[in-house]
Amino acid sequence: MAKKKELSVEDRLRALYDLQLIDSRVDEIRNVRGELPLEVRDLEDDVEGFKNRVEKLEENLTEIDNQIKSKKILIEEATGLIKKYTEQQKNVRNNREFNSLTKEVEFQELEIQLADKHIKEFNAQMEQKNVVIASTKERLEERETHLKHKKADLDAILAETEKEEKLLLSKSDDYKKDIEERLVKAYVKIRTNVKNGLAIVPIERGASGGSYFTIPPQVQMEIASRKKIITDEHSGRILVDAVLAEEQKVKMEKMFTKL
């Protein structure tokens, strides 16, 4: 395997700061997208949840409707039996047979009453479920409309930034290959531990970028000499001088405009 070219401290600092500028550019692109991907995912979950709920409610309606049909069939059968037993009563030979048929008629009448009661209960359940279904469908429609708009927003942002992000990520990988592994690991670790992802910052007005802690003049001189890699004792970030930072920004901006 080909050995990496030995870089001077200054070259390492420039390469690291270039890498930082690339990764910060990727961060900016992702910040533009913001929470949109998560919002879209949450809305998709909501839509799926409402669809499943409507489906289950409609299945329940079908079950209740089948039970109503079953009770109506029972009423028809009971009515037929009542008619049959009433006819038979006209031809009985004794009271015992008449009373037996009377009991059968009464039983079938009770069956009809109970079936009617159940049908009323089932109809009430259906009315209630239809109200819930209508409300759920309304909320589903709202979520689907909201999702459609959010997806359109996300697609528009992705169309603008996806290509650039891929190219920048590829560039980031390329730059890491030219920097010794221990420095890349240190850079990634620092970048992961700081809120804004800035692992390498320039000196600004006598302090490290984004910090209020003043860097002693002697340390500022050492940083400006570019003879060794120096970290901020408060934040742990790698420090570079303002001139180097400005030179690399100008260089990288030209690269960014070509992407």
Your description of this structure?
This protein is mainly α. It folds into 2 domains: 9-31 and 180-258, no CATH class; 36-165, Helix Hairpins (Orthogonal Bundle), CATH 1.10.287.1490. It is built from 6 helices and 4 strands. The protein has helices at 9-33, 36-89, 95-177, 181-193, 217-225, 242-258; strands spanning 200-204, 207-208, 230-231, 238-240. It has a 4-stranded mixed β-sheet. Strand 3 (230-231) and strand 4 (238-240) form a beta hairpin. Helix 1 runs antiparallel to helix 3 (95-177), helix 1 (9-33) packs across helix 6 (242-258) and helix 2 runs antiparallel to helix 3 (95-177). The longest helix is centred in the middle third of the chain and has 83 residues, at 95-177. It starts with 8 loop residues before the first helix and ends with a helix. The mean pLDDT is 92.
CATH topology annotation of the largest domain: Helix Hairpins
Number of helices: 6
Q: What number is the mean pLDDT?
A: 92
Helical/strand content category: mainly alpha
Amino-to-carboxy terminus distance:
30 Å
Low-confidence stretches: none
Number of separate domains: 2
What's the architecture of the largest domain, going by CATH? Answer: Orthogonal Bundle
Q: H/E order of the elements? A: HHHHEEHEEH
Global Rg:
39 Å
Largest sheet: 4 strands, mixed
Our estimate of the beta-strand percent is under 5%
Give the spatial strand order of the biggest sheet: 2-1-4-3
Identify the overall geometry. Answer: rod-shaped
The CATH class label of the largest domain is Mainly Alpha
SS elements, strand count: 4
Instruction: Give the % helix.
Output: over 70%
